[in-house]
Batch of 2 targets.
Target 1
Amino acid sequence: MKPNRRFLNQPKHFWANVRLVSEQTGYTVRGTGQVRVPTLSEVGGALRALGLDARHVVGPDDEPTALGRILLHYFIYRAQALNEYVKPRLMSAEQARRQFQKLLKILGESDCPIPMNKQKGEKRAPAYLTAMVNILIRAHAEGLPCDYDPRRLTTVTADGVPLRTLARRVDGAFPGAVNPVAVWEIKEYYYTTTFGSRVADGIYESLLDGMELEELREHEGIDVKHYLMVDGRYTWWECGRSYLCRIVDMLHMGYVDEVLFGREVITELPDIVRGWVRLARGRELRSASSAG
């Protein structure tokens, strides 16, 4: 899922309103399995209930202001994107298993890692989403290296000297953890029965990575692509729709370049990896030219 450009360059105070209103009105409509679209009246009421002014979104004639209109359009977009686009792309463990086996049969695992999940007993199995990500990257990386499981912090350098080092380890880096063109996080939860703090923390970790990469881009002019890949229909949709809303918000705040939901890994990742290859090749050419 790529961001809708209409909402990409909104100021920080726009997202302050999105978060606050969403939290106050609720992200979902109980009993319907749907993401909520607050009305203008509910937006104004949510702000007033917190002792805040609502005149920046609700005009004196009870019509939306310019900011109010874009807020309402965003809430509609977010709900439609999740209800109609994301939900059918999230997979159960069995669906992910079948997709993994199909992909393995077509592409083979080559020499890329196929990690196992952390379950025990009958649930012990390959980490399906991570395995599919690894297989697809290997198949489309044109022989370039990839660090599928960095065991060190991501570092960006200038003239051989560390320029920025991210605060935490990412799940993957291309072509490596030092000066990557792309990094990613994978959040697959096929067997989780509740939406616990560990799952929620994963979202905030990706947000931290995105904020650090934003600072790098704004102050050093260096762009490292950032991706989030999630799956597990029961965990994310039945238990965690409010966090899916937060993910869509994070995407449009510019903290991730794309989010791949479930089946999107199979349909979208090949083209994404080809883009990484072009960036890496271009960097190699520039480096060779400078050295010459």
Target 2
Amino acid sequence: MRAEVYPVKTPEAMGVRSLAIDGAIKSIREEHGLELHSFLMLRGGALIHESYFRDNEAERLHTLYSVSKSFMSTAVGLAQAEGALCLDDLLYGFFPEHAALCDSERKRRVTLRHMLMMSGGFENNEVRIFGNKTDLLKNALSQPVIHEPGTVFNYYTLGSYLLSAAFQRVRPEGIHAYLKRKLFAPMQITRSRWSKSSEKIDLGGFGLSLSAYDMTKLGQLYLQNGNWEGQQLLPQSWAREATAKQMDNDRPEASADWRKGYGYQFWRNGFGGFRADGMFGQYIVVLPEKEAVIVMTGNLNDMQIPLCAVAEILLRGTS
């Protein structure tokens, strides 16, 4: 049994047309034939819509893929507030046993901030390295830095693994256990999984599983600038900084909502606000101007369509 943390209200009571929600879902599932697993919406702190499209989906721990990155970023923000690390700390400083791999001037300038912004400058060999699975940390650190850190956006999940590994050097319990203690417990997230590498490091950039209902809580936390039920769980400054545009990602090959700016492991939306975003259609969409959070999970072969449905159908029915 889950803990109910939101009041339940009708969409109309919160200024949203039910037909607009239904229309967005119909567009995704019927008009485009995509496999949507859940759709939830909060407005003004109330749960105004919750629907599931597979048996037992409400209780299922859904694989979040890269939505995991936004949870990892949150852990980094909490650790910085405790003084355990600083975003301007040098990446290789966390791994003195691998100092010999820091073999160029560019590598010596890579910071945690660069890695959060997807601008560490590493040559992107992550498919080959993840496929190998042995000595993941050493292999990741041995890759050449081919761009000046902070200058080129390159979506790099292996970089998120390096962030998780660096985090574990200052908080040996690791990101998952840390978040369960610092964030999940007060937010009543009682069920979660996070896969680890063979080196016993939380994968960071992927591997987290939560229920769709519990996914909404991260969105609501950031919507409320880190405040949860009157308690400031996350520094307000981090909530704003992490979700602001920190890096330009306006690449001609990218779809519309993947070129509007990148924060600290959060994407910016073309229709306002920001989101946590995972492969095959896992979303936590946060719209501060509308005081809204939308969670979608699925197994989608087109990730732009659900965002278009939100922007072009749902938001037009939201006052």
